Amino acid sequence: MSRFLKEPQTDKTSEAHVEASLGLTIGASSMQGWRESMEDAELVDTKLPGLANVALLAIFDGHGGDFIAKETAKQIVDQIVSTDDYNAYDGTNPYALVSALSEAFLRTDDALREAHTDGTADEVGATGLVVLVTKYHIISANVGDSRCILSDKSGHVPIQMSLDHKPDHEAEKLRILAAGGTVFRGR
Q1: Using one digit for the tens of pLDDT, what is the confidence trace for 88-97?
Q2: Domains of the chain and CATH, by start
């Protein structure tokens, strides 16, 4: 498990990306904070195979280390673009991309679990958020409590684009229990 530093590491790593075809300027910034090491991974990909004018933005928040977050960031694009729904996307049906994201999260989880049958991945994990921006749609998919919030140009009207997967939401609690998990003290 990660340990905490005596003082937070406040240096920031920042980068900017421009995707002119979508009218986007994308900023990404990360800070280690109190953790012994940076446990998060981010991903910006504006050149997805086979699709023009689509940007992928993602953040993976490592829990118990950076292993799952970094591995997910490495694998998620390949998992998305290998789905039938991604390859069937014609620029008009956003539900194909919704399905592709859902399937990619499941495939990535399976791939990580299968690659680490020795138990190295049992005590670590990550939450994740992937957003696809097309010319006409913004599609978000999340796992855990990584969330997507959209704001209007004024910055004053936030729009919730995702729902946290936390056991204090009844549907999530039922999903955990149905999968054989337990919920103790709200966790």
Answers
A1: 999 899 999 9
A2: 4-146 (3.60.40.10)
